[in-house]
Amino acid sequence: MDSWPALIAIAIAVFFVMEWVAWAAHKYIMHGWGWGWHESHHEPHDDLFEKNDLYAVVFAVFAVALFALGTFADLPVVTAVASGITLYGLFYFIVHDGLVHQRWPFRHIPHRGYAKRLVQAHRLHHAVKGKDDCVSFGFLYAPPVETLSAQLRASGKVAAEAQERRAAP
Ligand SMILES: [Zn+2]
Ligand SMILES: [Zn+2]
């Protein structure tokens, strides 16, 4: 298949599916058996890189492999899929590494609209210590902040941590 509109539609569909893939990978892999890499992202540090960046490398290698397959085997659909994954990676980098974690040399904090909601939601993801009882595992879609705050309150983890800090000498 090599009709451009269809290929672009595939790339855009893959882009949206990737949000679900990233959500599931974050919730069930990174906060599960993959915590060994992801933990570095939940601990405060001054290093330029985190072990967690290896996940981005894995996704990038996967996308590059698909681009190679699409090009050399002349499979435009595969190239379209690889394009969708890469586009998602770009948005993920802008929102997560850029807007939320400020891993770029300029400071911009969105104060309005959907971008603000995304940033606040991911800050809430980092509101509790450790891998359990976290909320908001998506990156480009986030539930309303009130919903996430209610989830956090319901788990009692934030209150328990505050209690712990007060008890500490
Ligand atoms: Zn996480
Ligand atoms: Zn983060």
Can you walk me through this structure?
With 169 residues, this protein is mainly α. The chain has one domain. It contains seven helices and no strands. Helix 1 crosses helix 2, helix 4 crosses helix 5 and helix 5 runs parallel beside helix 6. The longest helix has 30 residues. The model has no long low-confidence stretch (mean pLDDT 94). The protein binds zinc ion (ZN) (2 copies). The site of one zinc ion (ZN) has 6 residues, from helix 4.
Summed up:
By secondary structure, this protein is an all-alpha fold. It is built from 7 helices and no strands.
Shape: elongated
Task: Tell me how many strands there are.
Answer: 0
Weakly predicted, low-confidence segments: none
Tally of separate domains: 1
End-to-end gap: 67 Å
Instruction: Quickly give the structural class.
Output: mainly alpha
Write down the secondary-structure element order.
Answer: HHHHHHH
Instruction: Kindly estimate the percentage of residues that lie in beta strands according to DSSP.
Output: under 5%
Evaluate the radius of gyration.
18 Å
Helix content: 55-70%
Q: Kindly state the mean pLDDT as a whole number? A: 94
Q: Total helix count?
A: 7
Keywords: Carotenoid biosynthesis, Membrane, Oxidoreductase, Transmembrane, Transmembrane helix
Domain Fatty acid hydroxylase: 12-138
Organism: Aureimonas flava
GO molecular function: beta-carotene 3-hydroxylase activity; iron ion binding
